[in-house]
Give the backbone structure.
Amino acid sequence: MTTRKVITGGRVLLPTGEWADGLDVLLEGPTIRAVDRVGHVEGAEILDATGKWVTPGLIDVHTHLGVHELGVGREGADFNETSSPITPEVRAIDGINPFDTGFQDAIRAGVTTVQVMPGSANVIGGEMAVLKTHGRVVDEMVIRAPSGMKAAFGENPKRVYGGKDKAPVTRMGVAALFRQQLMKAQDYLRQREAGQAGTRDLGLENLAKVLRGEIPFRIHAHRADDIATVLRLRDEFGFDMTIEHCTEGHRIADRVAEAGVRVSVGPTMSARSKVELANKGWHTVAALAQAGVPVSITTDHPVVAIDYLLTAVVHAIRHGLDERTAWRAVTVNAARHLGVADRVGSLEAGKDADVVIWSGDPLDLRNRVEMTLIAGGVVYRAEG
């Protein structure tokens, strides 16, 4: 028998980023059936949210949950396969531990969907996946896998492989390795399509998904010159992409907007720990949004712990991002960034019943998550 729940009496966040009073949220099994004044529903469990605020589950588009485990140390650091600077064959899903305590932290903070990706040591780092934050087996948590191919420009590949006296040691080398591997993938794809390829190559098979437009590159780029480089390569090879971090995006916001790419910004709460973060600030996300760039906000967990995602939203608002855009940056815009907006990101009929009930205005950090539901089931309930 399908379980029905009605969340009633709360202030409800709309897909526009605005709030509405007097609406009920009807859940039927794992799905939202209505956001309306639904009245009496036979046999439904009533969740009284009077005086409370109701949002869709929050989304963090760029994390290393489960592949960089909390409180474990080196043994839990499964996010960078540093045996080579080019590893498109690896898949984050094969390294995710669903019992990483970060998943419980996410649920307690109202974060119900995350993208988990390889780290940024490699020029091409492997495939990533979009997951729900509740589950015991990663296969049952997946919304989309693969959801993208990781690439990284700037200091990280230089530092990791330059330190081993291997390529790349310069930004020129990073771009050259990327370009060379994409050319190999183009040749491989042409041969496969012509029935002429010999032994299959897993890395090139995975890059072929990018070239065919099945998944995007999600490219780590902080400095403005690195952002310009990845846009140049996008135009050269014709792949879809998102820019991850985009720390100096404010310097060329018009160029990013003209390129028509989606951007995740963060982890802005982190320290300026390397040279390419020297110009990091909360102004970046506001400048990009004002230029018309679709933005998401990320913690880059565990660089900043995932339970500070909403804290980052508050800081962005404090420094000029309008409140509606800020909410969309961790809900509907984030879902579109990940290609899963048909499932999550807003309280709408037909979408997954991922809902968070807050004790008051979530942007007042004195308030807390009182209940988190994923697929219609209560996965967290605050005590007291």
Notes: The radius of gyration is 21 Å. The domain at 1-56+346-384 is CATH 2.30.40.10 (Urease, subunit C; domain 1).
